[in-house]
Automatic annotation (TrEMBL):
<keyword id="KW-0540">Nuclease</keyword>
<comment type="similarity">
    <text>Belongs to the HARBI1 family.</text>
</comment>
<keyword id="KW-0378">Hydrolase</keyword>
<dbReference type="GO" id="GO:0004518">
    <property type="term" value="F:nuclease activity"/>
</dbReference>
<dbReference type="InterPro" id="IPR027806">
    <property type="entry name" value="HARBI1_dom"/>
</dbReference>
<feature type="domain" description="DDE Tnp4">
    <location>
        <begin position="3"/>
        <end position="125"/>
    </location>
</feature>
<dbReference type="GO" id="GO:0016787">
    <property type="term" value="F:hydrolase activity"/>
</dbReference>
<dbReference type="GO" id="GO:0046872">
    <property type="term" value="F:metal ion binding"/>
</dbReference>
<keyword id="KW-0539">Nucleus</keyword>
<dbReference type="Pfam" id="PF13359">
    <property type="entry name" value="DDE_Tnp_4"/>
</dbReference>
<keyword id="KW-0479">Metal-binding</keyword>
<dbReference type="GO" id="GO:0005634">
    <property type="term" value="C:nucleus"/>
</dbReference>
<dbReference type="InterPro" id="IPR045249">
    <property type="entry name" value="HARBI1-like"/>
</dbReference>
<protein>
    <recommendedName>
        <fullName>DDE Tnp4 domain-containing protein</fullName>
    </recommendedName>
</protein>
Length: 177
C-alpha cells in the first residue's frame, strides 16, 4: 500500500515511482487480457487516470475535450472513465468518515502518518471482512465536504502508441452499446 505523498507530486509521478508500477512494467505482475463481458473482444486489464496520465495499453485516460464535442461515443467513454475515477476518489472520503482524524491535517511526523493511514486501511478492510459493509457505515447527520484523495494533475503530452489508442477504442465501443 503506497501512502505518504504530498499534494505537490502529480498522481502520474506518484504512480510511476511506486513499487507496484515498477514491478508491473517489468512483467513481475502479470494481468492477462480478458474479453469484455458479453463480447469476444479481449482487452488488457486497465487502470484509470485523468489528463495527467499518458494513454497506455494498461492505463486509460479521457479523450481530449476538443475531440468529444459532437461525438457521443467519446463522451460516453469519458463519462464512464470519470465514474470509475470517482469510485477511487470516494474511497478516501469513506475512510475519512469512519476515521475522523483524516478530516484535518495529521499533526505528526511523516513516518507516523504513513503508519496511521496504513493501520486505518487495514482496520477498515478487516471490519468489512468480518462485519460486512452495511454494519461498518457510521450513521451521521453531520454535513462533510467531499474529500479529494488525489491532487489535481496537469495534462500530459507524452506520446502514446497505436496499441493504446486501439485499446481505448475497444472500451469506447463497448461502453457505447
Amino acid at each position: 500500500m503506497g501512502v505518504g505523498n504530498y499534494g505537490r507530486h502529480s498522481d502520474s509521478a506518484i504512480f510511476e515511482n511506486s513499487v507496484f508500477y515498477q514491478q508491473f512494467v517489468h512483467d513481475k505482475i502479470i494481468l492477462p487480457p480478458k474479453p469484455l463481458p458479453g463480447t469476444e473482444v479481449s482487452v488488457p486489464h486497465v487502470f484509470v487516470g485523468d489528463e495527467g496520465f499518458p494513454l497506455q495499453t494498461y492505463l486509460m485516460r479521457p479523450y481530449p475535450k476538443s475531440g468529444v464535442i459532437n461525438n457521443v461515443r467519446k463522451k460516453t467513454f469519458n463519462r464512464q472513465l470519470s465514474r470509475a475515477r470517482r469510485v477511487v476518489e470516494n474511497a478516501f472520503g469513506i475512510l475519512a468518515m469512519k476515521w475522523r482524524l483524516f478530516l484535518r491535517p495529521i499533526e505528526t511526523d511523516e513516518g507516523t502518518a504513513d503508519w496511521i493511514v496504513k493501520a486505518a486501511c487495514c482496520l477498515h478492510n478487516y471490519i468489512i471482512t468480518k462485519i460486512g459493509n452495511r454494519e461498518s457505515v457510521i450513521e451521521t447527520d453531520e454535513q462533510v465536504e467531499p474529500i479529494r484523495a488525489l491532487a489535481a494533475t496537469t495534462p500530459t503530452n507524452r506520446r502514446s502508441n497505436a496499441v493504446a489508442f486501439e485499446v481505448r477504442e475497444h472500451f469506447a465501443d463497448y461502453f457505447s452499446k
